[in-house]
Write the structure tokens for this entry.
Amino acid sequence: MDVLINKSYKKYDRVSRYNNFPYYYNVEDKKYIYGMTSYLDDTTPYTLHQIQRGDTLDNLALYYYGNPTFFWVIADFNRIQDPYESIENRKEIKIPSFTGLTFKQ
């Protein structure tokens, strides 16, 4: 008997890395288990931003995308695990083109 059933995907009406994020129901412990998320394709066109004192992911997202909540796009594209960690120790950071965003599994 399969332990994980009802593979499902939640669809979002906005840009989200969780669009291709499967979840399953575990019949043994009666809990939902979430699969792996997708990540931004590293072939997406990008702009190289020279880091300046005081730069943070959210203020870069505000500057480039007009919305600080898209900080995760920059973090994901640069494989930054902790979005709260200072980026000032970097010399530059890649800012992916928002209109060209694609995801890989």
In short: Residues 39-104 form a domain with the Membrane-bound Lytic Murein Transglycosylase D; Chain A fold (CATH 3.10.350).
